[in-house]
């Protein structure tokens, strides 16, 4: 796939016309999506395993061989695929929980996420993972509807109930108000009817000199 075309594809959430109905653009033979899925499988299998020392050594050698192969394709951050595939859950960023954002309006965003043991604290979602999910959905909303770029200035998360693993959680964000360059956002995460976490966040619109490193491909 030609990565230079990524920022203009219909499913690109930063596209200025993106308030049109969201159409995921995963292609039938999407090899990069396959690779992301394979990395996720490694992460989950690694987390669940208790290999012997001999097997650890052999596996480390195999994984280093994979890393060496990937290094042959290294590009600059603007050109990498990970994090730039807006149509994939988690944007193809393998550290991120696989949040699938399903709907964004000018004032609301909705998504779903299921995490496994890789993102576990102890029989529940790790407390550092929940803010990752809120940051992702609230940042998308903060930067939607053609608004100029803003970065997260503060994110305050309240953990109301353990967030279970291996089941779907619903995540929502709401644009509360704008005050000059400040955009106030609110987020909630539910398992069924149970509120598992909620968040308040502040996004601050960037001044021109603060957008120097933002690539053309990421500009709404
Ligand atoms: C590549 C682009 C990606 C963009 C989306 C990706 C989402 C992200 O994950 S961003 C990564 C995490 N966030 C960051 O790295 C941001 C780091 N921080 C910064 O860059 C700066 O502090 C930044 C831009 C947020 C604000 O700095 P600056 O522009 O100098 O703000 P400043 O003029 O001091 O303050 C503006 C207003 O915001 C308020 N404010 C700023 N920070 C805070 C804060 N943490 N808490 C409360 N209020 C704050 C100020 O009080 C001020 O309010 P008022 O206008 O009423 O006086």
UniProtKB/TrEMBL annotation:
The keyword Cell membrane applies. It is a peripheral membrane protein. It catalyses: octanoyl-CoA + H2O = octanoate + CoA + H(+); dodecanoyl-CoA + H2O = dodecanoate + CoA + H(+); (9Z)-octadecenoyl-CoA + H2O = (9Z)-octadecenoate + CoA + H(+); hexadecanoyl-CoA + H2O = hexadecanoate + CoA + H(+). It is an enzyme of class 3 (hydrolase). CDD domains: PaaI_thioesterase. Signal peptide: none annotated. Residues 125-194 form the Thioesterase domain. The keyword Nucleus does not apply. It is found in: Cell projection, Ruffle membrane; Cytoplasm; Membrane. Keywords: Apoptosis, Cell membrane, Cell projection, Cytoplasm, Fatty acid metabolism, Hydrolase, Lipid metabolism, Membrane, Transit peptide. PANTHER family: ACYL-COENZYME A THIOESTERASE THEM4. Belongs to the THEM4/THEM5 thioesterase family. This is Acyl-coenzyme A thioesterase THEM4.
